[in-house]
Amino acid sequence: MTLWIGPIIAAVVGAVVAAGASFGIVSSQTATPPTVDTPYVVYGSTN
Amino acid sequence: MASLRLSRVLAHAWIAGLALLILGPALGQGFVLSYDLVFTPRQDLLPAALGLGGGLPRAVPQDAVVALVETVVPGMLVEEVMLVAVLVVAGWGMLRLLPGTTAGLLAGTFAIVNPFVLERLVMGHWGLLLAYAIVPWAIAVSLRLRQTGDMLDGVRLVLLVAAGSLTPSGSLLVVALAVPLVFLPGSALSISRRIATTAACIALWLPWLLPSLMHPSDGSADALGASVFALRSDGPWGPIVTALGGAGLWNADVVPASRATFLGLASTVVLLGLALVGWRSLQRTLGTPAWVWWLAVATIGLVSAVASALAPGPWGTLIESVPGGGILRDAHKLLAPWILLVCAAAGMGGARVTGWLRDRGTRITAVAALAVVAVAMTPDALWGIGGRLEPVQYPGDWASVRAIVHTDAREGDVVSLPWTSFRSFDWNDNRTVLDPAPRWLPRPTVVSDDLIVATSGGPVKVSGDDPRARVISESLGAPGTLDATLTSLGIGWALVAKDTPGEVPSLGDWQVAFSGTDLVLYVAPEDVTPVSVPALELGVVAGVDAILGVGLLLGLSALGIRRVRSLRSDPLIR
To answer: Is the pTM of this model over 0.90?
Structure first.
């Protein structure tokens, strides 16, 4: 029975990640956009 | 028995592995610099670390503890250990608190892969997260203390509260959830011991409470700050559903992208569904008094957080009028008791649901799948939280400037320019990060403490509370007066960061003491009389901190002695 664990988990993860990728949510978000042209750095955004 | 032990080991290994998977590259060589998360190779123990700087003591005693630890451990290692600890301690705490490996494993997984933890991690609020992680341990010890009345458990509780009390909000969280349990009906402790335990835990507030009382400002926040930092809906489902799932941090830039998709809603529904199934089991595990107390605190926090979004006006007025209300202005923090409760209940619910399966192999598969699905529903949680946490190396200029400021005999504090609170260095991939100068330099460093937040109505400035920073801000509005203003404030040095947004004002005839690729250091042309913290204030705060530190070391020693004695009395060892 335990032989099934790996494939099942892989299928679940694969499906969810694939669904996430299709929505464009699985991507590297390495940084906030550069703000070199602004006179200050904002703490964050509520938008 | 061997099977049970193996399952416990595997559950602990899963939590540790998950923590490593979430942090991923963040544990590489260098420093992770993200919003308020700032570590440096060596932070000095300055008055600000004791809460006696210009502003409110928000990172107290956190900065003092970090400074003391970094006298023997490199800052990079301290940061990495703390990042791992906030996740692993939370997960293992659920394994300690809840009966059965399945409940603990699932609750532990939920407790570290949820929007509350992920968003706070990117914001760099590791002190609050450490308190969050310690809560399950503290509740477990409190429950045992209620049953046994053993004062060594009281000592354990005080030590746990101390570990969770690196920030004011963290200490309030741990104390609010764990300490009242010793007072509730059914406690085996005598009244005097209940009072003693509570008093010892409350005394741990003194490191930040004393400086707050001595601070010139009243510690309250303005209504504008409360509205800017109110709970924010992370999807079209509104603030109530957002809050129920532990999400809703004010800063949209740190919210995992998956939270705004169907996955965000789905993970909340699954979590709440399992929590409903496990609700009664958790009540039986904790006992009704403790369960009711936790539920009451969690509900108050949940309602308050939601109120900040639904009724920002009255919420802002409340925060403004309550002394010390500044601690509460970031309303999302108030969800910590709620999300911990829901995770614990969901763990119990998951154990109950999988327990319905008769076949052992199927049951194990279901538990594993449930844990993995919980992670997979926030796929951007993994590997440095979607690449948001990555280590970088400080340019060499920082060490050079530190060395000059450390060795140069000319007196005066330092001002950090450009005059903005946050930095966006290209060598840090332009991530927003709090100005690292106060933690790099071995002298008090004045920085802008005004917070600028982008809102739908344009940028909003939330004013800081450091009197010297306020004077400098006013001086910048009158060109040509800055150099004289700085020297009048006891500031004899100016550190200018080159590659970050912000205008650098003229410093008149100040001289260049160092000029590098990334930093320029200026020194005032004349002698400056530094501003010193009143000796009485410093003596009182340092004295109280030292007494508390010695007391905690004595408590730790008592536990160690008890441990050694119990090992010696073990016939297998003797």
So the answer is: yes
